[in-house]
Amino acid sequence: MRASVFTEYGPPEVLQIKEVAKPAPKDNEILIRVHAAPVNFSDTLIRNFKAISPKKFHMPFLFWLIGKISFGFRRPRVNILGSEFSGEVEAVGKKVTRFMNGDQVFGYCGPRMGAYAEYLCMPENGVVTAKPENMTHEQAAAGPYGAIMALGLLKKLRLTPGQDVLVVGASGGIGPAVVRLAKFHFGARVAGVCGSARLEYVKSLGADLVIDYTREKFTDRPETYDVVIDILGKSSLSLCRRVLTPRGRLVYVSFKMKQILQMLWTSVAGGRKVVCALIAEKQKDLVTAGELMEAGTILSIVDRVFPLEEAADAHRYAESGAKKGPVVISVVASPDSLQ
Questions:
Q1: Which residues contact 241 (CB under 8 A, 6 or more apart)?
Q2: How far is CA 231 from CA 64, 81, 194, in A?
Q3: Do 159 and 234 reside in the same domain of the chain?
Q4: Which of 80, 96, 223, 227 is 20 to 30 A from 107 (CA-CA)?
């Protein structure tokens, strides 16, 4: 089968199309013919992981060390990227009962990666479920991780209707799902922060207010919020105090030890709180997310689609700052690979 493979860390050019062995499902696995896989943050991070120091990494040192051990210090141990996918079940292991040949599915394979290939195996109880029927494979592929994280995060925060929520990083992989769910599922008023190129994209998601961080700082504006959700952990408690209500919460999806210590301190100090959120990826949350995607509560507005042969171009475009939504790689098996 064809796959986009990288054998060394570096720029997008390290991605090369090669023939690799087609996987065979174990007794508890399904074999998926991959139709589409997005270019997400983890893909671009791992592709150039050698250049990512602990300081540059978006999580504490221990997470960086685990990542280095898992993915390789000098050369990549995982050679096929792609942690999200949409496709069709081609074969099932003899102990599989939940899926059948021909089922249209989508899911998240996490650090195992492997979706930049024509075929992928997933355990039956993994983060995989039926694809929303009213979505294309490209649209569905762009949704799993962001939807799971947003749903788990907002349930943990116990948002109530009428609360004011600010999403810093509203146009990335998780932010759009947070915007949609906070407003249309939990009934909050939602503002989003993004760059100039993605203002219209975030507006199209339904945000009540969109702030262009290249023109102004959200901390200088007069609005206050019950919850500020910082996807990439770039804001600080000292700057956010004035835009938080007296009992407001500053929520980090990515965080360092400083934020963890602030969370511990504010948990006993009263008043404004810091929350460092770790969300586990669960199949049941993807099932719920799929239903919300099919109902239109979560949108998937794809910017551009690249063929598998142009995976390097897809990465280059995704990192250019010009993208206005998810970038997706079309991975459709060629007739020869079906042998």
A1: 272
A2: 18, 22, 11
A3: yes
A4: 227
Structure confidence by residue, pLDDT tens digits, 11-66:
999 999 999 999 999 999 999 999 999 999 999 999 999 999 999 898 999 999 99
CATH number at residue 79: 3.90.180.10
The end-to-end CA distance of the chain, in Å, is: 9
Provide the number of structural domains found in the chain: 2
Regarding whether 309 and 176 lie in a shared domain, the answer is: no
**Would 30 be classed as within a structural domain?**
yes
Q: Is residue 294 part of a domain?
A: no
Question: Rounded to whole angstroms, how far apart are CA atoms 55 and 75?
Answer: 20
Amino acid at 260: I
**Helices and strands (DSSP H and E) totals, the chain:** 10, 15
Mean pLDDT (the chain) is 94
Q: How many residues does the chain have?
A: 339
pTM, entire model = 0.91
- Give the pairing of strands 189-194 and 2-5: unpaired
